[in-house]
Amino acid sequence: QVQLVESGGGLVQAGGSLRLSCAASGRPFSEYVMAWFRQAPGKEREAVAVIDRSTPGTTLRTYYADSVRGRFTISRDDAKMTVSLQMNSLKPEDTAAYYCTASKFVYSTRAPDFSSWGQGTQVTVSS
Question: Helix/strand/coil (H, E, C) string of 59-71?
Fold first, then answer.
């Protein structure tokens, strides 16, 4: 399995921006579908953004939750073994613990399909 470490969380005012980064180690990073999930207190963990494995000659497939589409951007750098989440126009409802995660076998938005998880980084958006 791949090991994941997130960074970049913090406190920001509504309308501000944050960039989350996730550094991977272990298995070849390029073999993994990568994603960011988040979980707010009392709520289920939800997929925020997913990015597929890079395939030469094809457009990189991505998914965004409706609540973040147009504001968040997921990207990956296979050479550096990192995945990032650029978050713009943040809203108080974006407040949550954000988790980086990896799946070797399936492009999915379901948490059980992801086998490797980081420890999480807290994002707090004040109004």
Answer: CCCEEECCCCECC
Taking the CA of residue 85 as centre, how many other CA atoms within 13 Å lie in the half-sphere pointing to its CB?
A: 33
* Predicted confidence (pLDDT) per residue in 14-73, tens digit: 999 999 999 999 878 999 999 999 999 999 999 999 999 988 888 899 999 999 999 999
Sequence-ordered list of residues with C-beta below 8 angstroms from that of 66, at least 6 positions apart, any chain:
none
Across residues 91-99, what is the average pLDDT? 98
CA 33 – CA 4 distance, rounded (Å): 13
- CA gyration radius, the chain: 14
Number of Cβ within 10 Å of residue 57's Cβ equals 4
Query: Is the pLDDT at 10 greater than 80, yes or no?
Result: yes
The length of the chain, given as a count of residues? 127
